[in-house]
Amino acid sequence: MSRKRKQYSSDFKAKVALAALKGDQTTSEIAARFEIHPTMVSQWKRELLDNATGVFEGKDGKATQKSQEEIDTLYREIGKLTVERDFLSRRLDR
Questions:
Q1: How many domains does the structure of the chain reveal?
Q2: What is the pLDDT of residue 38?
Q3: Which of 11, 14, 47, 57 is the most exposed place for a label (fewest CB within 10 A)?
Q4: CA of 87: how far to CAs of 36, 61, 75, 91, in Å?
Q5: Cβ proximity of 47 and 17 under 8 Å
Q6: Where are the alpha helices (DSSP H) in the chain?
Q7: Longest pairwise C-alpha distance within the chain
Q8: Residue 85 domain-assigned?
Q9: Domain-located, residue 1
Q10: Which residue would you say has higher pLDDT here, 2 or 77?
Q11: Are residues 41 and 14 in the same domain?
Q12: Given this model, what pLDDT does residue 56 score?
């Protein structure tokens, strides 16, 4: 019978990663304290460091992403309308 993998909450992962960033304890000590594998401690620490800039983006980061999606949608619409206009103008020239 297969065992289901344990799912950890984002709060727990953040707590472990912050403990690893402090540097008070070794990775093995942190892993033993939280009863997880040492590889997970290193992985979560690296993930926290890689995504740390997203914390300070706040609402502006989400707004920028949303506006970029809007711009992409509008450019697609412009492209469709341009093709339609060109097609109809060729039909009128005949």
A1: 2
A2: 95
A3: 11
A4: 63, 39, 18, 6
A5: yes
A6: 10-22, 27-34, 38-50, 52-93
A7: 81
A8: yes
A9: no
A10: 77
A11: yes
A12: 74
CA–CA dist 41, 67 (Å, integer): 36
Q: Taking Cα atoms as reference points, which of 65, 82, 37 lies closest to residue 16?
A: 37
Confidence (pLDDT) at 1? 64
Question: Which band of pLDDT confidence, cut at 50, 70 and 90, is reported for residue 2?
Answer: confident
Contact 48, 55 (CB under 8 A): no
> By CB neighbour count within 10 A (0-12 exposed, 13-18 middle, 19+ buried), where does 44 fall?
buried
Q: Name the nearest CA neighbour of 52 among 12, 21, 26, 30.
A: 21
The CA–CA distances, whole Å, from 30 to 5, 42, 69 equal 20, 10, 41
Which residue do the tokens 């706040």 mark? 58
Quick one: tokens of 38? Answer: 């040492």
Q: Is residue 15 part of a domain?
A: yes
